[in-house]
Each structure stands twice: as structure tokens, then as C-alpha cells.
Amino acid sequence: GQQVMQIPQYQHVQEGEDFTTYCNSSTTLSNIQWYKQRPGGHPVFLIQLVKSGEVKKQKRLTFQFGEAKKNSSLHITATQTTDVGTYFCAGSSGAGSYQLTFGKGTKLSVIP
Amino acid sequence: EAGVTQSPTHLIKTRGQQATLRCSPISGHTSVYWYQQALGLGLQFLLWYDEGEERNRGNFPPRFSGRQFPNYSSELNVNALELEDSALYLCASSLAVGETQYFGPGTRLLVL
Predict the structure, then answer these.
(1) DSSP three-state, residue B41
(2) For residues B11 and B78, what is the distance between their CA atoms, to the nearest angstrom?
């Protein structure tokens, strides 16, 4: 079955440093979604990428979808304490038995 | 617009008992998904319902079951509870297949 690997599992950064989490799928994806889960909260949708090589930005967050549509990354510039949480990628292989396969997430800690 | 709601917020059961968890999707959303988030294991896909029918299920034993009602709300039933069923159970809904999933706050199930 489809597997989505996400690294690193944990990341501790000093406030102001950059942060990147990477997502790799064992199969070609039709789209990839990114979610953020704050401590004690539930996953909140951030963005969806659909096109090969797509790059989207949300303020300090930059999302990329690989050319082969098998990998993705989320980069945060100049982290802030409000960025703390676990970031999940979730891939969909598309039609048929549609479902999202989630990576295990990257837990980000920001040291003020 | 109200988000996805889940009840109860917390549930404490003993081994061998049955648990029923409920989810109301965002108005107009027809697809409902259930996930288990156990400590350290990320989000594991459980079940997907669309238009009242089970469309797909994850790698869980048959004692995990559910249904979707005509109003698109959904129920997750877990029979013969085991200690390792202790987890946060998240429900998500989407407007249609393949669309963004919006998560509810979850039900924290503790099996003693």
C-alpha cells in the first residue's frame, strides 16, 4: 500500500532560525496536503498542492511539490513561537479507493 | 459556519466494553473520515463514508465499525475494547471526494 514518510520526526530550533520538513511517498500522488496540529489540538488544513513542481507561499511558509509528484517540503523562514506544533503531510493517490495517507509528522519546538 | 463537531470529548471505558463516538460534519459535506491518533503513531486512517456508504477502511480489525446516517453524521463503534485502543479519535469531513478534509476536535478514548 501507499506509504508516506516524513522527516525529521522532531526539530528544535532557536526562534528566528529556519525550519524544513520533508515528505516522500512510495507512489506517485495526485495531490498532497499539509496540516498543522498545535499541542492539544486537532489537525488544521494549511494547503493543497496538485501540480508537478508547484510552489505556494503563505507568509513565512513555502510549500513545494516535487516534479515527480512523489515528494514535498514545507519550509518556514524565521520561525516564531507561534509556529510550534506538529506538521503533517498527507498524500492522495487519487480516484478509486481515495483516502489520505498521512506522514507521521514533524514536531517543531521553537526556543525563544 | 459551524465546523466538524464530535462527541463526547472524553470517554473512559474498561477492557471488553464497547465505545460509541459521534461526528457531525460541516453542513453540506457528504464525506466523513475517521482516524486514530495514538501516541507516537501519527494519524492512522480508519474508515471513510460517503453518501451513507462505507467506501474504504484502513488496516484495523472488524471490531472497529461505523455508519453514516442520512444527514451525513457518522458513528464509530469500537467493540471489545483493548488497552491499545486508547487514543485520540479524529473525524474529518470534506465537501466531496478528494477535497480538503476539515477535522473535528476529536474524542479522547481511554481504556483502563
Answers:
(1) coil
(2) 12
What band does B102 get if pLDDT is binned at 50, 70 and 90?
A: very high
Q: Please judge whether A99 and B106 are an interchain contact, meaning their C-beta atoms are less than 8 angstroms apart.
A: no
Distance CA A3, CA A12 (A): 26
Q: How many CB atoms lie within 10 A of CB B84?
A: 8
Q: Which residue has the cell 506509504?
A: A3
In this structure, the strands spanning B102-103 and B87-94 are antiparallel
Chain B residue with minimal CA distance to A10?
Answer: B40
Contacts of A107 in chain B (CB under 8 A): none
pLDDT in tens, A41-95: 999 999 999 999 999 999 999 999 999 999 999 999 999 999 999 999 998 876 5
Grid coordinates of B103: 477535522
Banded pLDDT at A97 (limits 50, 70, 90): low
* Mean pLDDT across B98-112: 92
Subunit contact A101:B103, Cβ cutoff 8 A: no
Q: Do B98 and A31 touch (CB under 8 A)?
A: yes
The beta-carbon neighbor of A99 closest among B56, B103, B104 is B56
With beta carbons less than 8 A apart as the criterion, state whether A67 and A53 touch. Answer: yes
What are the C-alpha distances in Å from B78 to residues A40, B51, B70, B102?
A: 23, 22, 21, 23
